[in-house]
Design goal:
about 150 residues; Aminopeptidase; seven-stranded mixed sheet; about 35% helix; globular
């Protein structure tokens, strides 16, 4: 299933960003010279498919991949405009770093970046944790959207 987010009506993100800052986690846009490290981390911790999508996010200008760093190590990532324009994802947080607000902060970073680029809506493709997206940014299910753009994926 896919979900839809109104970018013009996002909730206030300040608390999400403050929570990761308080946890001494740096959240920022990835830089081109970090591409090999980010892609390798995504491949190792998630999947080859997600690594491919993150690779595409690095081809955007500016780079459409955000990362979370704790003690000099990547602990999370989120991309947008990778498989399709106007799509959020993929995104993931290291299991050992979960419940620190990293996923929400990465989500807000991408969605706010998309809003600044002029999008009115974002699509979250192939949603796993639908309740998280509904609660965090008011995402709603797009009826009849499964399996969506990933139909027939090799």
């Amino acid at each position: 299933m896919d979900m839809l987010v109104k970018l013009y009506d996002l909730p206030d993100s300040r608390a999400a960003f403050e929570k990761v800052r308080e946890g001494e986690i740096e959240l920022r846009r990835a830089l081109a010279p970090e591409k090999h490290k980010v892609i390798a981390w995504v491949r190792k911790n998630f999947s080859e498919a997600w690594a491919s999508e993150a690779d595409v996010a690095f081809s955007r200008q500016p780079v459409a991949c955000f990362i979370a760093i704790e003690r000099g190590k990547i602990v999370g990532f989120a991309c947008h405009d990778a498989t399709c324009p106007n799509f959020f994802g993929p995104t993931g947080v290291d299991p050992a770093a979960r419940n620190k607000g990293i996923g929400a902060a990465l989500l807000f970073a991408c969605l706010e970046d998309m809003r600044h680029a002029g999008y009115g809506y974002a699509i979250i493709g192939g949603v796993g944790p639908g309740e998280f997206y509904a609660k965090t940014v008011g995402a709603i299910a797009i009826e009849g959207s499964g399996p969506g753009i990933y139909r027939g994926l090799l």
